[in-house]
Amino acid sequence: MTDLELMKIAQEAREHAYAPYSGFKVGAALLDRSGRVFSGCNVENASFGLTVCAERVAVFKAISEGSSQFSRLLITGGEDIITPCGACRQVLAEFAPDLVVICASESGMMIQYELKELLPQSFALRQREA
Fold it and tell me: Domain range for residue 59?
């Protein structure tokens, strides 16, 4: 799966975003290690704390369908390049500490990060077990 293919899936997911409060729609495409892709979009709520980001929607969809090992994530939020929020970074770290995160603009500009760059001191299972 190429980054451009992931971009198309994320852009399609973004079309379904429910963002009546912020007007800021985000789409995500999460590639698992077996080659399956799980899309997600942000879903806002009048009680803002209940809003769920596109990245977490994609992760939760994947987990609910039996996948928990991920290799790449592409997110897009429109004209500007965006990165995952802190909550999304921690959820991603739970399942894929070595994840490659591609942040893309609507025009196709892309910046690639390793999740460890974006969240260098994540909470981890091994830390909780110690």
Answer: 3-129
